[in-house]
Specification:
This protein has 201 residues and is of the alpha+beta class. The protein has two domains: 13-49; 52-193, Nucleoside Triphosphate Pyrophosphohydrolase, CATH 3.90.79. It contains three helices and ten strands; from the N terminus they run E-E-E-E-E-E-E-H-E-E-E-H-H. The radius of gyration is 19 Å and the shape is elongated.
Length: 201
């Protein structure tokens, strides 16, 4: 990940890049940019990060699988849907994005798609567009069951608990600010907006 890939859309131009930190999972740089509303170059501090995939796993009886994971930057453990980075360099294709979602589902929760289950794409969103180009691709996995091999947690992760919640419990956790993870909140909103689940009365 020693190169930075920048996709300038029409009216945008990157005229210079100074890499401050070329890390394995992200790159920090100061970029000189021209934009449609700002023709004179101006500096912007940007974090370039690989795309992510997140999956909202639903069991055949309609419960959602969440994990409670320690998150070092915010110094707490959060209830979340499983998620992780898409492997490879450059812009990932659909197959790599789907593979990452299914990989994270199995590795973090120990669940997989059952026979007849489906992985439903829910689009993507920008996680914090003011400073990073990271985008997270969202999926709903309908019909998940425990995989024979169980979870296989990354040694850099600390997953404290994996539990199944009803849709009503999920709504209560969101309304009560128990769920504060952007991926999970966005996935819930997309599932409601697309009619895959119903919002509370």
């Amino acid at each position: 990940m020693n190169r930075i890939t920048i996709h300038d859309e029409e009216g945008w131009e990157t005229v210079g890049t100074q890499v401050l930190y070329p890390g394995p999972y992200l790159k920090l740089s100061i970029e000189q940019v021209r934009s449609p509303m700002r023709p004179e170059p101006f500096p912007w501090t940007v974090v370039r990060r690989k795309a992510g995939s997140m999956v909202a796993p639903m069991t055949p009886d309609g419960r959602f699988i969440l994990l409670r994971q320690e998150r070092v930057p915010v110094r707490t453990a959060l209830w979340e849907f499983p998620a992780g980075q898409v492997e490879g360099e450059g812009t990932p294709d659909d197959a790599a994005i789907r593979a990452a979602a299914l990989r994270e589902l199995q590795e973090e929760t120990g669940y997989g798609l059952s026979a007849g289950g489906e992985l439903i794409p829910l689009g993507y969103y920008f996680s914090s567009q003011g400073f990073t180009d990271e985008r997270c691709h969202l999926f709903m996995a309908r019909g998940v069951t425990p995989a024979p091999e169980g979870p296989c947690h990354d040694p850099n992760e600390a997953i404290a608990e994996i539990r199944a919640f009803t849709l009503e419990q999920l709504r209560e956790m969101i309304a009560g600010n128990v769920i504060r993870d952007a991926n999970t909140l966005c996935a819930y909103a997309r599932m409601v907006a697309t009619g895959l689940i119903k919002a509370g009365e």
